[in-house]
Amino acid sequence: MLLNKKGRSLYIFAFTLFILSAFYGLLIRWNFVFSIPLFTYKNFLQSHSHVAFLGWGYVVTITAIIQSYLTNLQQQNKVYNISLLIILVTVTFMLISFPLSGYKVFSIVLLSVFGITSYVLSFKLLKDLKGNSIDVRFIKYGIYYYLLSSFATWFLAGVLVTQGKNDLYYNTVYFYLHFLYNGYFVFVLFGLLFKILINQNVNLPKNLQNYFFVFLNIACVPAYALSVLWSKVASIFYIIGFVAAVLQVVSLFFLIIIMKGVFTQIKWNKHSKLLLNFGLVAYALKIVMQVFSSFPYFVEKSLALKPFFIIGYLHLFTLGFMSVFLFLILIELGKMKLISNSSKLGVLIFLIGILLTETLLFSQGFLFLFSLGSIGSYNLVLLITSLLVVIGLLFIYFNQFKTAKN
User: Fold this and answer.
1) Domain segments of the chain as ranges
2) Are 110 and 93 in contact (CB under 8 A)?
3) 103: left (phi > 0), else alpha (psi -120 to 50), else beta?
4) 324-332 vs 270-292: helix axis angle to the nearest 10?
5) Which long-range contacts (CB under 8 A, 24 or more apart) does 114-117 make?
6) Among the four residues 12, 20, 62, 176, which has the most C-beta atoms within 10 Å?
7) Residue pLDDT, tens place only, 260-273
């Protein structure tokens, strides 16, 4: 059974996929500095992003939800174990299919199998999740948003065949990404965090939690408007996007108050506290950036400087918020250990790598924006900072096997 009592094997496998995805990202950076013959940037980028979100983010969150909320008997249900096995197999093959052929028949089949399997898993989870506490509501709505995001994947194939890569195609992609990012991952990660805090007897004011949930939830659907502004839509979309962004800021205000109370109560080690702080700052920056993205000037500049601002935003979410929170959740659930000095050093190197990479991306963007020149040997320096991220991950990764052995 994949969902054994300790449940570390699934997390280690997902972490392995994350490492391989990170290597693909590093290979992409390498190609910008030292050109690789016959290297197809788009294909490796698709594999890099799909494996990071589906093989790392999705697998870890779903497994953590199952093990945090379901009884041991429920966890042994064949639906969960078979579904997770299929998902792991399909994502693993995506590591090969995308670099070899891109978004073609084999990759589409793998994504289709993944999608159908995730539906089975989602509906089974929604049926088995009991209670109406705030953390359960976060988890359930996260799954709802995942299902909503997945509709775009089926629609996308039809658009591609009938109309090609036009505005509708890209807006469909952004629909998928928005509800996966700001819907599924945001909601389930905060749901799991609140579950951990509740289990540790941390007092969480219910009224503040409800306000945070309500404002974040109200903002989620209209915030999709922020993703379509690039395609020169009507002014009403800017208004809708701005209102949604403001609602997210209001939700952030309640989150900050909640977290101030949390920090006075938790008895975590300094590395867990560092991860929590880092993830929260990255999340806050994400929301601030979404506010700016509701103004035409910043939309225009972001599109012109996509390799810096948009890529910086995506990595801020994926690495700075999602991955940092995933590590934090795994540590506090006892599924990942930071016992050795090298694993603790790995966390620091990982965070420093993210910080330097994000600083480089946005600094280069702002230098171009204000016509102030550029950073010397930018691509080489970016390759080095990206290497730090991978080195940090490797330090953490290999120490998990030492911990398991001990």
Assistant:
1) 1-130, 134-186+196-267, 305-406
2) yes
3) beta
4) 150
5) 114/54, 114/86, 114/87, 114/90, 115/150, 115/153, 115/154, 117/83, 117/86, 117/87, 117/90
6) 62
7) 999 999 999 999 99
